[in-house]
Amino acid sequence: DALSQLSSLSSDQLQALASALTTEYQAHKDKGLKLDLTRGKPSSEQLDLSDALDGILNGDYTTANGTDARNYGGIDGISELKALGAEILDVKPEQILVGGNASLALMFQAVMQAHVFGFNGPESAWNKETTVKFLCPVPGYDRHFSICETFGIEMVTVPMTATGPDMDQVEAMIKADSQIKGIWCVPKYSNPTGVVYSDDTVKRIAELAKIAGPNFKVFWDNAYIVHDLTDTPKTLANIMSLAEAAGTEDSILQFCSTSKISHAGAGVAFLNASTANLATFKKLLGIGTIGPDKVNQLRHAKLFPTVDALKAHMKKHAEILQPRFECVLKHLNEAFGDNTLGAWESVEGGYFISFDTQPGLASKVVTLAAEAGVKLTPAGATFPYGKDPEDKNIRIAPSVPTMDEVDAAMAIFVTCVQLATVEQQLG
Ligand code: PMP
């Protein structure tokens, strides 16, 4: 059809197409809908799945090793949850610290440790250097970028591919520049592209410390490790065991949390690190708190007595989420499957679908959609400093709206992309 051969259309044909799309767009607008595809958080239906947390202890606050969870102490968390975190990440329980409700807080603290205090004594602190840089695979997660910005860490982008960050570029950049001290990675169902890093990519990242300057750290944010939408999920290689085999385990800091498993604002976060790094991390953490919320940790241990119980729970999330993702993909396939107006990865887990318009159109599409009642994440949000150099990436988050709302919002979205593209073609 016309959209698959835009460049060969006459200006009259383009004009006719633009006016048809404008009519369609106006019809959407006239419905006066108020829809929102911005929020990467669980719906209340998903949160309901974990409401048994409330009251689950039934007055019994004693942990497996006999401590009273209500009292102070236990900086690295209760043993039941170290075991659970270790099973989720397939690492040793003694290499797990169980924190509060936010893995983001653990990441922030880890960057602070490395930047201000050093993981290897004060001389190893990044702030001893004139310039500190991080590699940021893009599109990526804006809150990672905000942490870098807060510490004045310069962000250098590297493109995401279907197998993870472009590793030839990553290695070349790290070899050429010892000021690069870290890299952000969301290795499974990456935010926002949904990509799972290939085994080869994981191995190469595990070994980056061998070619990097001193004190290099990989921030391995495994936020979506158990967030599969299919029964046959892709597997992710184990970065910590690969790093141990290569002798680079001190360069790996791995994170995850139950934020999108139980209650997003009242869950439990995990840090996995080498014995040496954990000891250093605990020391600083212990300055700021006497211990984490062990009562909540114990509640989670009761709700998820085994990793299998947790995985069964995740299937219930998938039943709610999967149709929403399918609906988004159906709209994208129907509208852009046979033309070059948009590009996206098929998504088998996580919370997002990442859509690329043709260059220069993302902000236009976001504005058009907003005017027709569909709120989208601001264009640029998936890039450091909020600047997408090609202005083409849009993050779609379908978890919160109802199925009907996702359907209606996506119908509007595709019209906006088509209209913006045809108008650009018209010049
Ligand atoms: N990492 C990624 C990649 C995320 O998408 C999110 C949530 N949007 C987080 C971390 C935040 O996790 P937490 O709630 O554990 O801080």
Automatic annotation (TrEMBL):
Reply yes or no: does the keyword Transferase apply: yes
Q: Does the keyword ATP-binding apply?
A: no
Single GO MF annotation:
L-aspartate:2-oxoglutarate aminotransferase activity
Report what the protein is called. Aminotransferase
Cross-referenced SUPFAM superfamilies, in alphabetical order? PLP-dependent transferases
Write down the Pfam families for this protein, in alphabetical order. Answer: Asp_aminotransf
* InterPro entries (UniProt xref): AspAT_Ic (IPR024551), PyrdxlP-dep_Trfase (IPR015424), PyrdxlP-dep_Trfase_major (IPR015421), PyrdxlP-dep_Trfase_small (IPR015422)
Which keywords belong to this entry? Aminotransferase, Transferase
